[in-house]
Amino acid sequence: MVFSLAADLVVLVHGLFVLFVVAGGVAVIRWPRLAWLHLPAVVWGGVIELGGGVCPLTFLEVRFRRLAGEAGYAGSFIEHYLVPVIYPAGLTRGGQLLLGILALVWNGVVYGVALRRRRKKGRD
What we know:
By secondary structure, the chain is mainly α. The protein has one domain. It is 80% helix and 0% strand. It is built from five helices and no strands. The protein has helices at residues 2-30, 35-51, 56-67, 77-86, 93-123. Helix 1 packs across helix 2 and helix 2 (35-51) runs antiparallel to helix 5 (93-123). The chain starts with a helix and ends with a helix.
């Protein structure tokens, strides 16, 4: 029971991390100092996606699932949890690269807006 709950907690944290990578730049517009946490998260997420790696949180979750007597899974968090929702047929390497590039481009745009607002505020 404890290991199953621990695995569920890891899934929650992992999901929040993915959400932070994708949408955290919007929060940076409101709270610029958050960039010190967000930028490393974006780099980490980009490296994992573009490099085809698996996040250590995935290994931790699978380990807890197995310790709880549950079946673990192969592949990444995104493949296991998000792909069935977003890409029911499965995520190809090209699709994974596209997701990584889109996340980086999206965050680049958001940071551009944040920097523009900051510069405008400095002039006022």
